[in-house]
Amino acid sequence: MSLLDNFKDLGLIAQTSQESELRQHLESGQRTVYCGFDPTADSLHIGNLVPLLALRRFQLAGHRPILLVGGATGMIGDPGGRDKERQLQPLELVAQQTESIREQAERYLDFDCGINSAIVVNNIDWTESLSALDFLRDVGKYFSVNSMIQKESVRRRVEDPKQGISYTEFSYMVLQSYDYFVLNQRYNCSIQMGGSDQWGNITAGIDLIRRMSGNHAHAITYPLVTKSDGAKFGKSAGGSIWLDAHLTSPFKFYQFWLNSNDADVIKFLKIFTFLEKEAIDGLESVNKDDPGSRQAHRILAQEMTRLVHGTYGLDAAERITMGLFRNNLADLGESDFQQLALDGLDSTNLQEVPLIDALVKCGLANTPKGDITRGQARKLIQSKSVSVNGFKETDPDRWLRAEEALFRRYFLIQKGKKTHHLVVLD
User: Fold this and answer.
1) Stretch 287-299: mean pLDDT, rounded?
2) 105, 44 Cβ separation under 8 angstroms
3) Global pTM?
4) Which of 129, 192, 216, 251 could be 320's S-S partner, Cβ–Cβ 3.0 to 4.6 Å?
């Protein structure tokens, strides 16, 4: 199967520019492909794994990947997929986030494998010394405003009288196009990959390369991943699922994948893992014939946690899962409870306190609107939604006291079926 057909089979193709030419281009020699990541946070999230792993697939097929970190474009903000202006971040913060993301993204590519070794670049390197006049004269003259406002990401904002779009964000397309031109000149990069919301920016880069140098370039976009219920992918009740273990513990990360909807699990196995097609087809059959086995879910959780957090992180996640969900707290020793917090289970140190207050302090008493209140804590207890050390709790006036704690220190609070929190008495 060709690389392009493989991408289609995995559900990684939304659009391509001139597919027949792109196919011939890929099959006639080694190519250089790039994808950009703007530093909007200190960590990448699981949605960023789609392009990261796509670059890895290109590399495994013999092509050279370039990972671009947007130290410059990150200071502007991409209007794509947003209904309002992005808040501009301080230069120092952007620089810090750029370095964090560069270090994180480097884990997923091979930088020492010969002629197709990966490269990391930062677009601040070729933009910070570029004067406004030079940029307008040498680059801006190739862009038609008439054409730019027809791009979906811009048009939607222009047509919204309440929001509009600033010149700052309007210029993002020009900056990203110039990135593509620079990489084409420096590294003979001829393919850019991005999310489907980046189509307008990428094709503008293709046009700029053709006008400034006469070279041909290509575009591939992948569909933005969504869940089968329409919910945004990469979010949980606790917020985004980050790749940084300090922001999303290996246990939480493991649980996110383990709790994938039955309708999503095979799609996720295709997009995010490197399992052979036969293995995924086998898991799909088991998922249809015996969905209760959740074999596909476990394999997905194991593969993804090992990929992002390594074998140690996977072992920690499975150790917590065994302790919490197999109802064998009595089999856990004091060192096991100490390890639960070290392994990444959410924990809070408290003095002896009413259970209601513990739910509030641990952030478990959140209302549908996101508020955390004592009233919501009382409601959870009265509705039998809270367990303490494996037993349902119905008394709103219950205190968490040392004499009732496991090893006189630990209370494992469970809200609903999936949310656990360890209270450690000081």
Assistant:
1) 92
2) yes
3) 0.84
4) 251
